[in-house]
Amino acid sequence: MVSWKPISPFRLCSLLRSQKDPSLAFQLFTNPNPNHDRPFRYSLLSYDLIITKLGRAKMFTQMEQILQQLQRETRFQIPEPLFCHVISFYARARLPARALHAFLSIPSFRCSPSLKSFNSLLHALLTCRQFNAMSQLMSRVHHFGTPDACTYNILISACSSQGHVERAWKLFDEMRQRGVPPNVVTFGILTNLLCKNSLVQEAFKLKEDMERGFRLKTNVFVYTNLIKGVCEIGDFDWAFRVKDEMVRNNLRLDAVVYNTLINALFKAGKKEEGFRVLEEMKNNGCKPDAVTCNVLIVEHCRQNNFVEAYRVLDGKEGVKPDVVGYNVVIGWLCKQGKWSKAVDLFHDMPRRQCAPDVVTYRTLFDALCQWMQFAEAGLILEEMIFKGFVPHALSLNEFVEGLCREGKFELLLTVLNELGRGGLCNEETWKSVVSMVCTRENMSAPFEVFDTLVLA
């Protein structure tokens, strides 16, 4: 008879680290020794590992179950960074209310929230674009500590997201008046904001203040912002001078810098110069990434050179593009009226190991409706609803109107059934169907449609 050795707390941590499937990791954590009745003594590390794994997988129901169990633990002190991670997981999932709840629940874990977790919540609200909530939260900052550079960087980022240059400058002045030294991140956010608002001269002056007044070295992010700024105003000589300065300062030019230059040159119609920069990029050992591919695809499509666009999709640049590249090609094919080729590429995406996203479906569905390819549009809509994607309301109404106008009531019945199952039969859809079918002389088909609408 084989006797199974029970899993120890140390062994559980090792197994959780190696388990790639978060569902299996959850099962293992909740029942590590199914044949033993003794309570398992979980370590803090095992809690941290499973919460991280579940949070990254957005398995929040299971994660909250583990947190409730952790709340009952009294054998160890629970560190604040664990809650910062939980808050960030909710932020990535755009769940600001849950992020706030996680922050407010920290004391119930016998842990005192400090400025660290406060900043995590503030950043979560920024990620979710809850700017009013950020203002309300800042009124309570004194309960958790004195605002530091991280706090101000988050607030300045919020101003940047909203394009509020003056408000950002006031915050910058305020942090210096309070003796909070700005860091490289602060200057990166500000230069980005200035360049986005075509205040390039001010951005370069800020760079000088950063280097001379604060003795900080300009990093790649700041330089990239400056290059974007001068490219936006069309001064490519200036952009190349900034690039050369980066090289002199022993900063490695990354794909972001090269992609910025290539994209700007292509947009300005400087195609040959753009490809020269691409060659320089490769010669300097900087491998093109998915963004590079997308920039090239846009340029080829702009030139109606779909052969080259497909070549990039095939990975001929040494890297496979992401779904954005496919969406660009499908969009341009649809604009050219080549909807059949767009559909073929769409169906070929899984074989190319690239899953269509909501933009893919919407782009194709909109185009098929525009070109009155209702049968194909119906198939795309059916698959779209099955995958949980929602079409644009305007396109959906135009599609229904087109089916009514063309008298395609059999297809309309099928579509309405699908919309009903997906909960997408809105008021505008009702109005479109009612107004269109009532104009038909043969009223048998319209009554079938009304029956379907009532059942939906």
TrEMBL record:
Gene3D superfamilies xref list: Tetratricopeptide repeat domain (1.25.40.10)
Recorded superkingdom: Eukaryota
Sorted UniProt keywords: Repeat
Annotated InterPro entries: PPR_rpt, TPR-like_helical_dom_sf
Start-end of each PPR repeat: 148-182, 219-253, 254-288, 322-356, 357-391
Similarity comment text for this entry: Belongs to the PPR family. P subfamily.
Cross-referenced PANTHER family: OS03G0856100 PROTEIN (PTHR47447), PENTACOTRIPEPTIDE-REPEAT REGION OF PRORP DOMAIN-CONTAINING PROTEIN (PTHR47447:SF28)
Protein's UniProt name: Pentatricopeptide repeat-containing protein
